[in-house]
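Protein in question kept underneath.
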Amino acid sequence: MPRKQYYSIYNPPSLSMTELEKTTLDHDATDMLIDKWLEHRCLPHDAYLEWFRDIRERKHINSRKRQALLWNKGEFVPENIFCRTVDTGRLIPLDRTWTTHVYHHRSLQDRNLSMMHVVFTMLPELMILRGMHDLGCDEIFIIVTDLKRQEMDEVTEYFKLVCRNTFGRTCKDRIRQQIQLENMRISHTLGPHRRTPCFPQIDLTLRAILFEKRPRFIVLFSNQTTPYSQILFTHNCFVPDEEIFYDYPTGCPNPCCTEDCEMIRFPRRGLDTASVLKIKRGGRFRSRQMCNWIECQVCFDEETVASSSSESSETSTIEPSRTTAQVCSKCKLVQYCCLDHQKKDWDEHRRVCVKAPAGF
């Protein structure tokens, strides 16, 4: 008989323990939301469309080892906007969909709150964050709460404290006491306001997702009159680059707003404003440089072992070697392991490939 699990603020919980409802939106639902979002982009003075147009006019970026967001050709559709992935260095369009798992209190269903509305509210941000990762982002996790802005900030600081000291680490007695006091303080602060879900359920579900699913990021969504979202990243490398997103729209529905309100807390200033959970992953994350053909597994910054033997010798010598990268001669933005993979990738790459500036 399996041992019954109990909630602990120190030990990793299991998703089977959560009392929150889970609504899953598959790839088809995501496609439908993207189509609906594109319909709204034809409105005049749309902040997101104007931002992407600015991206299109900016100077051509010549780095194959940094983040990049490029719209070089065609109309404004996800398949024409390319993002460089932080994990494999590939240049891939934003048209890849994902599965969204939304965890929420059961009362939200009684109030007829559609989980598709929750995803639609932050759809452009999710498209960009999904596009930044080649691996590990087929599933996106959102926890719906009704926390106010200040309460959300306090909860975020608590999770930073817990992840920094408990995930893959032995927690010292002094830190354990600090975590316990902070957990009690937040629970007692939110209790009289009858926040749903309650803080222990938010804590349990979020830490269980981090422990079992190892996502690149997780979103706390506040279902207030004006929705508010907090994006929690699990590594510094997963944070969008300030040089690209410094003027990204704040998400405020008021077109005349002059304040830095950030209804969707997208880290426009990079690590200075990003919420990063310091999770020990059992190994250092390292960005790789791979062949741009999506089905190729060749990595240019790793050595491969080749065995060679001669007829006159019974022993063989093991010689490590590196595959030489072949850069696209036109745009110089992507690299391939062979001409055959460049040809296979051309139907997709042609939508972003333009002649590089002189002296590139």
